[in-house]
């Protein structure tokens, strides 16, 4: 199934990211350093701003640093490919950042007495982790799992747009974004499990 961000949009982003990646590599910055810096930036935006109700500033900071996920991958490719540790670090930092974002959103909504929004944020937190786990487990068993409606960048942008609109006074924007994202994440889990099931049926018992 096509991703929310189509190939042409990603290609456009790549044209912007590649010159930055080249400059950082020439300056001696490593992809792993960008990965860790991006995660720290997301933590500041989510926990330092979003959890305290500064939704516009928090969403902008989180979105900016979340886009480093494209940057470190481009840097790794330009420098000869990702190392095993680099891939492990990137995946681990992604889980930390995602947990901080949705944990911060759930915390703020709970302080505002928005029980439905809090529930949606917690579903997004759990389902987002499950989306990643299903893929990792499938690949660990030697199968592919590159399917799903929205990848990590799209998921963060959806909640970021919801946060921005709520910060600018649009009623229920964040809650609607969270429920949309919860539905997309749950659907993606089912989609990936079905994809792996079909592969396992073709391979047969091991």
How would you describe the overall organization of this protein?
The protein has helices at about 5-25, 30-50, 55-65, 70-80, 85-110, 115-140, 150-165, 175-205. With about 210 residues, the chain is mainly α. The chain has one domain: Four Helix Bundle (Hemerythrin (Met), subunit A). Helix 2 (about 30-50) runs antiparallel to helix 3, helix 3 runs antiparallel to helix 7 and helix 6 (about 115-140) packs parallel to helix 8 (about 175-205). About 35% of the residues are buried. The model has no long low-confidence stretch (mean pLDDT about 90). Its main location: membrane. Belongs to the CDP-alcohol phosphatidyltransferase class-I family. This is Phosphatidylinositol phosphate synthase. Pfam families: CDP-OH_P_transf.
Write out key terms for the chains shown.
0% strand, phosphotransferase activity, for other substituted phosphate groups, single chain, flat, 206 residues, Four Helix Bundle (Hemerythrin (Met), subunit A)
Structural class: mainly alpha
Tell me the fraction of residues in β-strands, as a range.
Answer: under 5%
- Parts with pLDDT < 50 across at least 5 consecutive residues: none
Biggest sheet architecture: none
Number of helices: 8
Instruction: Provide the gyration radius in Å.
Output: 18 Å
Query: Considering the protein shown, what is the CATH homologous superfamily?
Result: CDP-alcohol phosphotransferase transmembrane (TM) domain
